[in-house]
Design goal:
With about 130 residues, the protein is mainly alpha-helical. It has one domain: Winged helix-like DNA-binding domain superfamily/Winged helix DNA-binding domain (Arc Repressor Mutant, subunit A), CATH 1.10.10. Helix content is about 70%, strand content about 5%.
Length: about 130
């Protein structure tokens, strides 16, 4: 289409194509944002039902929105909380099916917020 603009002056076709792309992207962003908001609200409701543990769990959960794959030691460092608190919070989130443990190890476990990552990865299949 750019060649047509260059050689035939077809600006209108190029602009229409470009604006259609912007419209499609905006619609996709809206759908993705709605899915993320619903996921976050559902998780927050589960966490709020925990009682006293909810405070550290909400702190950890908010951080998972920025970094959806994390270890206990990294969570502890990033949030300035003790490793036992980070571990307990991640275990609560594990029990609530908010995070999943993916390393399969007894120590240095890696936790991931898979449902969030799944939303972020929608429509991102690599080109062949």
């Amino acid at each position: 289409m750019l060649q047509e603009v260059r050689f035939q002056g077809r600006w209108e076709a190029w602009l229409e194509f470009f604006l259609n792309g912007i419209e499609q992207t905006a619609k996709q962003i809206l759908v993705t944002t709605q899915k993320m908001n619903e996921l976050f609200e559902e998780a927050t409701n589960k966490i709020n039902a925990l009682g006293r543990a909810k405070f550290s769990c909400l702190l950890v959960f908010e951080h998972l929105k920025k970094l959806p794959q994390i270890s206990v030691s990294l969570m502890s460092k990033e949030l300035g909380i003790s490793e036992p608190t980070a571990r307990a919070s991640l275990n609560h989130l594990l029990e609530l099916n908010i995070v999943k443990e993916i390393s399969g190890q007894k120590r240095d476990k890696i936790y991931v917020y898979k449902d969030y990552l799944a939303i972020l990865e929608e429509g991102t299949t690599p080109l062949s």
